[in-house]
Write a structure and sequence with these properties.
The chain is an all-alpha fold and about 70 residues long. It has two helices and no strands.
Length: about 70
């Protein structure tokens, strides 16, 4: 059953990174238009969400390997 779990998390990773790439395209387009406090806060929240997602994925992957 570990193979099924690994496949599932690999699928999550593929979807996550595809959404991440799309969101970065949107964010860089928005940042090129204007650079103010609102843009900085949006980027900060986004980076925090991405880091939490990566941390969760690595934690679950570490549990799966054990």
């Amino acid at each position: 059953y570990k193979v099924l779990g690994i496949t599932r998390y690999f699928g999550y990773a593929v979807v996550f990174f595809a959404l991440d790439a799309f969101a970065w395209v949107i964010l860089t387009a928005a940042m090129s238009i204007n650079f103010n406090l609102e843009t900085i806060s949006i980027v900060t929240v986004y980076v925090a969400v991405v880091l939490v997602g990566i941390g969760y994925f690595l934690t679950e992957l570490k549990k799966l390997v054990r």
